[in-house]
Amino acid sequence: MSTTLTKISAFSHLRLQPADEMNDLKVQLARDTDPNKVNVSAGVYRGADDKVIMFPVVKKAKEKLGANDPGHDYTFCMGIPEYLNMAAKLAVGEEILSEKKVASCQTVGGTGACHMGAKLLTASGHTEFYVGTPTWPNYKSLIKEVGGNVHYYNHLDPATKKIAWDVLMNLLKTVPERSVFVFQLVCHNPTGTDYSKDQWLQIIEIMKMRNLIPFIDGAYQGFASGSIEEDGWATREFAKQGLELIMCQSFSKNLGLYSERVGALHVVSDSPENSAVVADNIRYLFRAEASSAPAYGARIMIESATNDMELWKEDIRNAVADLNYRRKTLHNYLTTELKTPGNWDTLLSQKGLFWYSGLSADQCAQLRDKHHVYLPSSGRVNVACLNESNFKLFASAFDEVVRG
């Protein structure tokens, strides 16, 4: 007597996951055949031809690598030593590095650094993460995926659109010890609204007193002030004052190496002995994660930082000056030419690639469906995608949806 078994898929327990808005926008944009479509969605620095801008320092480094092909062998599990050394200097400074308390690992972009940092913390028993909103959506999934719990608080006051300082201060004073606070170093995504040095010092004082753990995302270092060193001040100050910390680093923006996935994780411990243990655990975790990080972009960074640092610094200064010009130009369109109802001075006060415009999700949908202007439902506008060919198109569409 035979028994007929019901065939059930090995994957039948899986359910559809929440949509990824940025990926969906990219798909919709690719399908849109309108010649005047405007893409101000993803955080990429583009020129007037809508192509990703290649910094002169990167062009020069690529030419050198092309003439002296290093091949395609695996790198060390923790990464290319020269890369890690240069990246750590930029992240935490030579003074802290000389104390032998920094463990570094090359990662698959800044996202990989955040994932590895969160994984290390949860493996150490630190599972409670506090994140200011609005924020980069990926924090939630990468923290939950490694067993962490995400708690949200207001980074901006919904009414004033300014930093909700009292909210953060009260939270820092009341959360359990060893809670993790996820901070964006500069050019906050999506709000472009950063802490001042005085505010950072107050944050550091409370976190030090209460044994809290800073988790610093440095995705845009250099794009606030025009100086990598100046923008890295807060990380160095945390470390100088003796706090253990996680620093997640990316060269996607400040070298324009988006698809090369050039990142690093830096962990500052309280002693060289503990740092050695941390490094070994990072090695163990990364071996399972990727075994070996991508090499090409890292080699571009090594060449840029080792032999052409002054050119790289100039490229960043020029990029920030250009971003500020684009902000001023759009501000002029909205305030002087179109006289769009509202106060648009946040265009001038916010920093980095993004302008947190204040548009509603419905208004963003109108921009997409009626005007072929693509941006996320948060109202975040990437000013680095605006140029002489689309300023007026974007401003006119923006003006129309604001007027209703």
UniProtKB/TrEMBL annotation:
Pfam families registered for this protein in UniProt: Aminotran_1_2
SUPFAM superfamilies in UniProt: PLP-dependent transferases (SSF53383)
Residue stretches making up the Aminotransferase class I/classII large domain: 36-397
Keyword Amino-acid biosynthesis in record: no
Any GO molecular function: pyridoxal phosphate binding
One CC-aspect GO term: cytosol
Keyword annotations: Aminotransferase, Pyridoxal phosphate, Transferase
GO biological process: aspartate biosynthetic process
Keyword GTP-binding set for record: no
Cofactors: pyridoxal 5'-phosphate
Stated family: Belongs to the class-I pyridoxal-phosphate-dependent aminotransferase family.
Assembly and oligomerization: Homodimer.
UniProt protein name: Aminotransferase class I/classII large domain-containing protein
Source organism: Ogataea philodendri
